[in-house]
Amino acid sequence: MARRKYVVGNWKMNGTKAALDEAQAIFAATKDHDAVDVALCPPFTLIGPMIAAAPGAAVGGQDCHSAASGAFTGSVAAPMLADIGASLVIVGHSERREGCGESDAEVKAKAEAALTAGLSVILCVGEPRGVRESGGAIDYVLAQIAGSLPAEFDPSRLAIAYEPIWAIGTGLVPTVDDVAAMHGAIREKLGQQAGAGAAEGMRILYGGSVNAENAAELLDAGDVDGALVGGASLTAAKFVPIVAAAAAL
Ligand code: 13P
Fold first, then answer.
1. 65 labelled catalytic
2. Which of 40, 62, 100, 194 has the greatest number of C-beta atoms within 10 Å?
3. Is pTM, for the whole model, over 0.85?
């Protein structure tokens, strides 16, 4: 079964209303790529305005709480994202696993809450530099999958993003062979944990220093179904060529 390519921009903590023009330009330039699904995940403050500026575009959050509501100052619940028109959310990004101490169990609860709210989910995994250097990257990532994959899910609504921490924002990228080996191992693990049908239907994205120059090669690696892009998703000039590279495959 052919999986549609999926290219998602994670704006992280970047962007004010002035950036909506850029989002409009991105969606306008990529809406004709029929073979590629494109989404942007801006800061919470821009989700509603971005949907208003680009009706019908896929816009999502970068995190959500695992509870539907409650006394959690500063947090945003998955049903709230759905309520303002978001269609997806990223969970388990390393900047939250590491920076906010999120455990696999917490990431799993967030993913399940998001699916229950009707959102699609991008569940991030990835190893730190020391683990890669010691040869333990695949075991580390598969343990993250074991601990954070929801118990039940529709494979078309749950994607995995493999983002080696040492490649994020550094300009460093793994070799294409290492990416293919990791993605193949993730798909095999998904098959063991969720069944062959789920593994076949789920998209596995690569993230970490993806740019216009390296996108074609990375997106063409075995078991790579798309990209989760940080810095290069902030402008149409940098992001649209990545989508075009996916469309050309
Ligand atoms: P960069 O593309 O800036 O390396 O960020 C990757 C990332 O963390 C996307 O979620």
1. no
2. 40
3. yes
